[in-house]
Specification:
205 residues, alpha/beta, 3-stranded mixed sheet, 7 helices, 9 strands, 37% helix, globular
Length: 205
Amino acid sequence: MSYQDAINELWSWFSSNTKEIRTAYVNGDDQWLDEQITPRVQKINEHLNWEIGPYNDPDETFVLSPTIRENIPLTHLAISAAPRCPGWHFLAAKPPKQLRSLTFSTETGETCADEWAYQLTSYNQGEFVDIEIFMEPTADLPIEQLDMFCELVVESLVGEEFRLNRIGDITARIVDAMEAVPGLTSIQYLPDHLAAVLTPAPGQE
């Protein structure tokens, strides 16, 4: 099956089952959603992912996640073919989150990144950056998943497509005392800092 056929199959099924999809989402039936949506999405490309969220409240939003930079054109192509479904919006990558707190659930509890800080290293005259994220050791720090959580924090602040296109390495640094590290900036300022440091993308000058 070609990716275009897989795209058509996904949207044909989606447009015929919007009521069932919304009901499963509202009721938290993640198993049904995973069984129904994931195989159809991964027929387009095995690396694609998806999520449903309240990004356009009160409507629901279906997000087709590229997960890697090379898949961004593919998710945009797929979303351009999305059906018109009342009460639904469609996005080609995960958007920035509107969060009051950078708190995320883990298998052992919750991790709060509100006190984390960072340093940027810019390359090629602002084409892209690497980010080092600093935090002090705490009981709830998910050491084995720390790199993943750092990516999650950055993505929540700037969105998935921006992260994939403009951010290189994201490295976690655990330090005993944040005040002992010079030049740190609070994690909440990352979006504005990136806007100031990075050159505009083509077409956005």
